[in-house]
Design goal:
The structure holds two protein chains of two kinds. Chain A has 15 helices and 17 strands. By secondary structure, chain A is of the alpha+beta class. In chain A, the strands form four sheets. In chain A, strands 2-1-5-4-3 form a five-stranded antiparallel beta sheet. Chain A has a five-stranded antiparallel beta sheet with strand order 7-6-10-9-8. In chain A, strands 12-14-15-17-16 form a five-stranded mixed beta sheet. By secondary structure, chain B is α/β, with parallel strands linked by helices. The longest helix of chain B is centred in the last third of the chain and has 17 residues. Chain B has a six-stranded parallel beta sheet with strand order 2-1-3-4-5-6, sandwiched between helices. Classes of the chains: A alpha+beta, B alpha/beta. The interface between A and B is medium-sized, with 26 and 26 residues.
């Protein structure tokens, strides 16, 4: 059974009070009785002496002997005077007078000579006794004294019921019991109030502490005093605040960690020191199609790749602290993943491993593109230089005298220098666009005027091949937000391509339309067209459908790549439709001003 | 065997360079044949054994390394020397050229005189000794820039 603190305090306080009162009572009670009794004896003795004097005065002169006829009368007189029972007894023990009994009763009384007080009075002149009187059926205090002028004439005995003392004691007991009861109630009340004052802060603190344990930090014990209890309350408040702070920190840290892990693009696995998975982030689950909780399993069971398990094993065996492997995944698409494993070391002991999976497929693809580009640049530059150098060398070695070929050779040198120069221009343009160093001023410009100017540039080239160049422009064309020079470059590149790949007598048509906030320009030709398989790669640098043909026509393989970059820098798009043998249509959009 | 009887094939897609090599070889008394893409080259090589193949790497159709490898794997073409002439100047390409059995690796831009020297040397080597053993020991792949 749980007894609350304030009841305990009340109980203890009351017990102490009651114990104190009881011990006081037990100590005082016999002393008080004795004190009363001795007081009673004293007054009885004095009254006895007074009665004796009275008796002696009423007796005749010394030696007259007992006057029995008078004794009863005297006893009644004395008893009446003193308000006590007075008995006069002859020396032989015969009762000769009593103020309580009548004459017949006195006559019936037995001889009193054996009574202790009488015996003592006879012997010493004074006797005292306390006993039960069968005559009047009460506890009595008896006191006897002999009287007589020269020698004892008889004995006067006074008696008083001891009831007075008993009732006094009973009264005392009653008072004490009443007091005890009253004090108990009072004490109960007082200690109850006191205990409330003592226990209330403690109860509050206990509630606050329990609330903290339950995660509720809003309850704080009120501080009532500056004593130890107050200090404890303050300490609990401080502790609660501290715990709250720490908890919040831990919570926010773990939330942060959760956010980081779940928003990470890389896959993460954490294992314990036994190599059992304890954490796997959503990115990795998605990567390997894991739709269950992989906790408690080994990486090999979940990922089915021995290299991954091998990293974990090597680290856990202490062979390596860091390990890297590249693994390839074929489902759902071919991917190259770089797996970096690291040991988790805390307090100098290996606690597990953490593996991070990077998808490096794109990186590898870009690396390949870059390598291919470097190889292509090298090839594209070296080829015309070889040609120029070779022909110059050949001419110098005597071919200059070879009238038949010398002119051709010089012309080839001229062509290849042009090709080289154009290639350098295109490469520089491309690198400037790609590195964002090309300065473009996007201003509202007249698209119609720019298109017409571009057509004029290509016109002669078209005429040479008997190609009709049609610009199908509406009368009123809204201005576009573009860089004049670069827009013209796009138009010229597309028109140049169209003319190059269109056989003699063909047609190249330019048309425009408004598509929402963009101007869409289309350049259609009736040329050789582009095979469907080449369409996705046509805008790649150095990608040519027919390499030899392109080079023959003076193409660098960069024209469409430049077009794409410029259009994209303007915020537009470029695409094409083509039908081999029928012709191609290149379309692009440029934002309206 | 005169120079005119030596069979030389130029496998080079760039028409200017093909013509350049062809012109200079003719000046030196050879009668070279010109081919402009990989597939055509494979076709020609399967039908005939050449003394010298001047081979570009970046060819349309089939690339030069592949062609070189197929020549070197063909027992009937044991007498054929392959001179790779390419813009691929990276050392890993040269190593790869060596691996596929090229007899000489020249990078573009090249010296016409050097190319002629290499070809004349290889022809002389063939003239001097016809034994397979000698061919094997002498025909170490050379590399020149």
């Amino acid at each position: 059974m749980k007894i609350s603190l304030h009841w305990k305090i009340t109980f203890i306080f009351c017990s102490i009070f009651i114990l104190a009162l009881l011990s006081g009572y037990l100590y005082l009670s016999p002393r008080l009785a004795y004190y009363f009794e001795s007081g009673l004896q004293d007054s009885l003795r004095r009254e006895l002496m007074l009665g004796r004097d009275l008796l002696e005065a009423s007796l005749g002169p010394a030696g007259s002997g007992g006057n029995i006829g008078d004794a009863d009368m005297l006893a009644r007189k004395i008893g009446k005077e003193l308000g006590l029972r007075a008995t006069i007894i002859a020396l032989d023990g015969t009762v000769i007078g009593d103020n309580v009994l009548n004459k017949d009763e006195i006559a019936k009384l037995e001889n009193h000579a054996d009574r202790p007080e009488i015996q003592n009075a006879l012997k010493n002149g004074f006797g005292i006794s306390k006993r039960y009187s069968y005559t009047i059926r009460k506890y009595m205090l008896y006191m006897a004294a002999s009287f007589g002028k020269a020698r004892p004439a008889g004995i006067l005995r006074l008696s008083i019921p001891l009831e007075a003392i008993a009732s006094l004691e009973a009264q005392l007991q009653k008072t004490v019991i009443f007091t005890v009861f009253f004090v108990f109630l009072l004490c109960l009340g007082i200690t109850f109030v006191i205990s409330i004052f003592v226990s209330r802060p403690l109860i509050e603190m206990s509630k606050a502490a329990r609330a903290v344990a339950g995660g509720d930090f809003s309850k704080k014990p009120a501080v009532y005093s500056n004593d130890e209890v107050g200090q404890l309350a303050r300490a609990i408040t401080d502790m609660s605040d501290e715990i709250k702070d720490k908890m919040e920190k831990i919570k926010s840290e773990s939330t942060k960690l959760d956010i980081v892990l779940s928003s990470m693009f890389e896959g993460v696995i954490v294992t314990d020191q036994a190599g059992i998975i304890i954490l796997m982030n959503p990115a990795l689950k998605k990567l390997f199609f894991i739709d269950y909780d992989p906790k408690g399993k080994r990486p090999l069971e979940v990922i089915r790749n021995t290299s991954v398990q091998d990293i974990v094993d090597r680290i856990l065996q202490g062979k390596q602290r860091l390990a890297t492997e590249e693994i390839s995944v074929t489902q759902p698409e071919e991917k190259i993943l770089q797996v970096n494993g690291a040991a988790i070391i805390r307090n100098n002991s290996l606690e597990g491993t953490v593996l991070v999976f990077h998808d490096i497929s794109e990186l590898r693809r870009l690396e390949k593109i870059r390598q291919d580009f470097v190889a292509n640049v090298s090839h594209e530059l070296r080829t015309p230089v070889s040609s120029i150098k070779g022909y110059a060398e050949t001419l110098l070695e005597g071919a200059i005298e070879d009238k038949e070929n010398a002119r051709d050779f010089v012309s080839i040198i001229h062509q290849d220098s042009d090709r080289l120069a154009k290639l350098i221009d295109d490469l520089l343009d491309l690198s400037k666009i790609e590195s964002g160093k090309m300065k473009m001023a996007f201003l509202p410009v007249d698209a119609a005027a720019l298109i017409k100017r571009s057509v004029a540039v290509i016109e002669n080239q078209a005429k040479e091949k008997n190609i009709s160049l049609k610009a199908d422009l509406p009368a009123q064309l809204p201005k576009i937000q573009a860089d004049e020079t670069r827009f013209s470059q796009v138009m010229i590149n597309l028109l140049d391509n169209a003319v190059k790949y269109t056989p003699e007598g063909g047609t190249v048509t330019i048309s425009t339309s408004i598509k929402e906030k963009f101007l869409q320009v289309e350049v259609s030709d009736t040329g050789i067209g582009i095979p469907e398989s080449d369409i996705p790669r046509i805008f790649e640098r150095f990608y040519r459908v027919d390499k030899a043909h392109s080079r023959e026509l003076g193409g660098t393989g960069l024209g469409l790549s430049i077009v794409k970059h410029i259009v994209q820098s303007h915020g537009g798009q470029v695409w094409l439709k083509s039908e081999p043998g029928q012709g191609s249509t290149f379309s692009f959009t440029i934002p309206l001003a | 065997m005169t120079k005119a009887e030596k069979k030389i094939i130029i496998i080079e897609d760039d028409k200017h360079i093909n013509r350049l090599i062809s012109y200079n070889l003719s000046k030196n008394g050879f009668r070279p044949e010109s081919v402009y893409d990989g597939r055509e080259a494979m076709h020609r090589l399967s039908g005939e054994n050449f003394d010298i193949v001047i081979l570009d790497i970046m060819l349309p159709g089939i690339d030069g390394f592949h062609i070189c490898k197929s020549i070197k794997e063909n027992p009937a073409a044991f007498k054929t020397f392959v001179v790779i002439l390419t813009a691929r100047a990276e050392s890993q390409d040269k190593i790869y050229g060596n691996l596929v059995g090229a007899d000489y690796y020249l990078t573009k831009p090249f010296s016409v005189a050097k190319l002629m020297e290499v070809i004349n040397d290889l022809i002389a080597l063939r003239e001097k000794d016809f034994s397979i053993d000698t061919h094997k020991t002498m025909a170490k792949p050379g590399v020149s820039n």
